[in-house]
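Hypothesis: this fold can be encoded by more than one sequence.
Test: take the structure tokens below, design a sequence, compare later.
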């Protein structure tokens, strides 16, 4: 799941290599997250037919193809195509992986296990900018990181394929597209949907814009050094998910959510005024640490909801608007400092909704 976070550091390097304009560079994240809008609900319907494990394996096939392509031919076109394949694979993966985990872990341990999974994802996201910087400095081409990710995908696919997991039972007929979207008519599901929408919106925005923020506000900083800002973000997320997996096993999910969301919202507002490298990175790390386990809290709450709905269907529904938030608006905000307010507003919404409820 962490592979899609490669788009953040890739925008920085690809823009410099291909001499892209801001619009061309901003289009790259859209190539990844466009598919969340197009494929999320169909993936949930497909998952009901072929099973969760097979759906995850299918996602890895697309991911592997996307990671191999830049090694065969790396150009502007192949770069866009590679990230489109990565987006397709990651869409299928993010819809199906958490439900597959629910086949293995149930009850109170689910939220903690989801957080532990986010810890592993954060490690992958943290390593990405470091690996890109190493390939650029030591090997002469940052794109050489893609074959490494292809090998990791191949190993993960083989491991999952050989792991016996009992297939879930699907009761009744497979839900239709309108029936899946109708889930949003439930107030609690709609609330959880907005919570996930806002959290992943901030996550992707920080991933993409942290290097650009450092380049704009820190005089003389190099592209490689600015790219490491993303690693700071994901390092803090890694630490946050590690501690969060233990804290959520003992603390109230609602109380944990409220405290961390408010802290993160204050830190996002502080980015509007931050100018030095130390101040920017400190606030970025606070945001990452506070937001690290929020996705697991919301996703776990949706799984344990007493409402009568199928988790596979909701898994697709919750991702269906991610592309419009993380792609188009992120691209429009790339040139300005307004992204701080934009993502602050995204964070205000779930805070207010959860406090109200």
């Amino acid at each position: 799941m962490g592979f899609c976070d490669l788009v953040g550091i890739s925008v920085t390097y690809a823009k410099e290599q291909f001499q892209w304009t801001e619009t061309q560079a901003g289009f790259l994240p859209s190539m990844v997250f466009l598919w969340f809008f197009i494929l999320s609900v169909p993936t949930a319907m497909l998952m009901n037919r072929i099973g969760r494990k097979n759906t995850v394996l299918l996602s890895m096939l697309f991911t592997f193809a996307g990671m191999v392509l830049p090694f065969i031919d790396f150009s502007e076109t192949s770069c866009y195509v590679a990230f489109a394949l990565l987006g397709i694979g990651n869409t299928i993966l993010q819809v199906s992986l958490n439900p597959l985990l629910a086949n293995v872990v149930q009850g109170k341990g689910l939220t903690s296990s989801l957080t532990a999974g986010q810890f592993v994802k954060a490690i992958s996201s943290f390593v990405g900018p470091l690996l890109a910087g190493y390939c650029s400095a030591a090997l002469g081409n940052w794109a050489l990181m893609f074959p490494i990710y292809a090998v990791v995908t191949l190993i993960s696919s083989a491991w999952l394929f050989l792991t016996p997991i009992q297939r879930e039972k699907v009761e009744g007929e497979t839900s239709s597209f309108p029936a899946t979207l109708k889930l949003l008519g439930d107030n609690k599901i709609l609330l959880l949907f907005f919570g996930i929408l806002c959290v992943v919106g901030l996550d992707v925005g920080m991933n993409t814009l942290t290097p650009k923020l450092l380049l704009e506000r820190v005089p003389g900083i190099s592209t490689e050094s600015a790219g490491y800002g993303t690693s700071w973000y994901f390092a803090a997320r890694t630490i946050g998910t590690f501690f969060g997996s233990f804290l959520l096993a003992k603390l109230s999910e609602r109380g944990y959510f409220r405290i961390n969301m408010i802290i993160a919202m204050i830190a996002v507002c502080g980015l509007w005024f931050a100018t030095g490298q130390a101040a920017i990175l400190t606030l970025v790390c606070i945001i990452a640490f506070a937001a690290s386990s929020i996705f697991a809290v919301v996703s776990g709450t949706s799984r344990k909801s007493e409402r009568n709905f199928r988790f596979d269907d909701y898994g697709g529904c919750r991702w269906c608007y991610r592309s419009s938030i993380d792609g188009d608006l992120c691209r429009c905000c790339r040139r300005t400092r307004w992204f701080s307010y934009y993502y602050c507003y995204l964070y205000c919404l779930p805070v207010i909704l959860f406090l109200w409820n």
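The chain has one domain: 2-164+174-356. Residues 2-164+174-356 form a domain with the Growth Hormone; Chain: A; fold (CATH 1.20.1250.20).
Hypothesis status: open.
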